[in-house]
Write a structure and sequence with these properties.
With 558 residues, this protein is an alpha+beta fold. The protein is built from 23 helices and 14 strands.
């Protein structure tokens, strides 16, 4: 007994006392930190930067009826993402199920409740999460990318002030074209819908229901961090943002159900898929789960709603940011095109009269990822393309915030102060990825510069150059970047985005197709980001872009 008492006393003396994360400065009576957000005029990223400047890397902020921990510490982010794992608005810890019942939230959100997410991740994970698992579906994006480039070409008009440049027609929007590319790709890959949404000319209107669906996705994502939506679970009435979210959700369900129903009905009649069907979609895998009783048809449609809504707007915005970054950095753009020219010269070696991506043959289908495109080994060799995409996602992250609910209490030692903090079970933690990715100390320097070499091994400025030992082969050397600050913002751990692999491939295919066809520059307004749940450009990027058809006379650009 004496020995155990001594050990307990020693442990008590040696262990640092854990305290709660301090509340951020600038707290107002009753209003909490709402005035800080109001002063930022709806830009959540700007509000958080203000609080970080006065209160450090990690703090608690309060709004009426709600408290949340905010951090830009990558090590705390790693621990939360890897060891915790409940979505703050999708778990069983917070009373959202009661909120759904009280406020009549639409039913049929299969990924949202209890432990169901594990079941769906088991079904979808092997296909969608990893880049390797998603690789068989590259052909889907590549076929759709042909249509993207042709649609983009059809919407370009001569610049009245400089005939050597082409501009997007006044009624054309690049992000919307990227959204159609993403929508067609994901619909085919997940639900086997063979859609045709691209307009052939500036005078041709996009289908109204397609426009309404894309707008619903954009609106729902933009509303996620509205102040009255954040505190909704504590309100006994439906807030304006909540009601709008509900309306957008129902619109999304209606659209996807209408597009998917004919495909499922055809299968139910024949119990057969068309030849080659399985190579372009995961729907047969999902339907097999229906036949085995693991899923219902409604759940399959709802999985489609989630996959499509999560992919369309995020992919479109990511591609728009990437287009801006490469257009504003001609050296990086030139290197990317040179890499493509060496690996797959047929993509950039063309004359001024060539058409873009003419249809391939059946023989092409048998040996290539997609007709007229690239062989698998060529795709794997395009390392600068992947580095450019990763660097754009770091510098201009479409998703700059992750929020999780702690399922267990967590203790954390702050590296800057040395203090030990306790994060209680049930705490909501917002991980400010956008600020992490712009911290020189965390990403190897020059965080504000677009530098794809950051993700190439063996090159000057390469963040990925991380040998396990130092030059003498002795003690380990810390990598010059933190992977949770310079990685791709799909999340990590068990709750990582289920479509991360397909999304990364899709963005790379979109960039490859557009920059193989066009030399793009930017002379528009200075770029800035409005960071909310989903980041947006504060200036109209499309208005500042100019295009020139890429014409080469040899396989390697000079």
């Amino acid at each position: 007994m004496l020995a155990s008492r001594v050990l307990r006393d020693v442990a008590t003396t040696a262990a640092p006392t854990a305290t709660l994360i301090p509340v951020a400065k600038g707290l107002w009576p009753l209003l909490g930190h709402l005035p800080v957000f109001a002063k930022a005029k709806g830009n959540l990223g700007a509000a958080l930067r203000t609080l970080h400047a006065t209160s450090g890397d990690t703090f608690r902020f309060r709004v009426p009826g709600e408290e949340m921990i905010v951090t830009r510490d990558p090590e705390l982010t790693r621990r939360v993402l890897m060891t915790q794992g409940e979505y703050a608005t999708r778990g069983t810890v917070v009373p959202w199920e009661r909120t759904f019942q009280r406020q009549g939230w639409p039913q049929g959100i299969p990924w949202a409740q209890g432990e169901d997410w594990k079941r769906y991740r088991r079904i979808l994970g092997e296909t969608m999460v990893s880049v390797a698992g998603a690789r068989p579906y590259l052909g889907v994006s590549m076929r759709r990318a042909r249509r993207l480039v042709n649609a983009l070409q059809a919407h370009l008009v001569p610049d009245p002030h400089d005939p050597t440049k082409l501009r997007l027609a006044p009624n054309a929007d690049l992000r919307q074209l990227y959204g159609l590319f993403a929508l067609e790709s994901v619909e085919e890959m997940v639900l086997a819908v063979d859609s045709d949404y691209f307009p052939r000319s500036p005078s041709e209107a996009i289908r109204p229901d397609v426009v309404a669906f894309i707008k619903a996705v954009e609106t729902m994502l933009d509303l996620l961090m509205e102040a009255d939506n954040v505190v909704q679970k504590n309100l006994p009435w439906r807030s304006k943002a909540y009601r709008k979210n509900e309306e957008m959700w129902l619109r999304m369900v209606e659209f996807v159900t209408k597009e998917t129903r004919p495909v499922l009905d055809r299968y139910n009649r024949t119990k057969q898929w068309p030849a080659g069907f399985e190579s372009s979609t995961i729907l047969p895998k999902l339907v097999a789960q229906i036949d085995s009783g693991e899923l219902t048809e409604e759940e399959v449609v709802m999985i489609g709603v989630q996959a499509i809504s999560a992919a369309v707007d995020t992919t479109a915005q990511t591609l728009e940011f990437l287009t801006y970054n490469l257009a504003s950095n001609p050296t990086a753009q030139q290197r990317l095109v040179q890499e493509v020219g060496k690996i797959a010269p047929h993509l950039v070696c063309r004359t001024a009269t060539d058409t873009f991506f003419a249809p391939g043959t059946a023989a092409d289908d048998a040996k290539r990822i997609a007709p007229g495109w690239v062989e698998p080994h060529q795709w794997d060799a395009m390392v600068y393309l992947r580095a450019a995409v990763r660097e754009s996602m770091r510098l201009t992250p479409t998703v700059g915030l992750h929020v999780r609910e702690l399922v267990d209490q967590l203790t954390y030692k702050d590296a800057a102060s040395g203090a030990t903090f306790l994060l209680p079970k049930g705490s909501r933690v917002m991980m400010n990825y956008g600020d992490m990715a712009h911290n020189d100390r965390l990403v190897g320097g020059e965080a504000a510069r677009f530098q794809p070499e950051r993700f190439l091994r063996g090159e000057e400025g390469a963040a990925a150059r991380c040998p396990k030992t130092n030059e003498e082969g002795a003690a380990p050397r810390r990598c010059p970047y933190h992977p949770y600050a310079a990685g791709i913002p799909f999340g990590h751990g068990a709750r990582k985005c289920a479509g991360a692999g397909f999304a990364q491939n899709q963005v790379q295919v979109g960039a490859l197709s557009v920059f193989s066809a066009f030399d793009i520059g930017y002379d528009g307004a200075p770029f800035a980001i409005n960071q909310m749940a989903l980041s947006r450009s504060a200036v109209p990027i499309s208005k500042g872009l100019y295009f020139k058809k890429r014409v080469t006379t040899s396989h390697n650009e000079k």
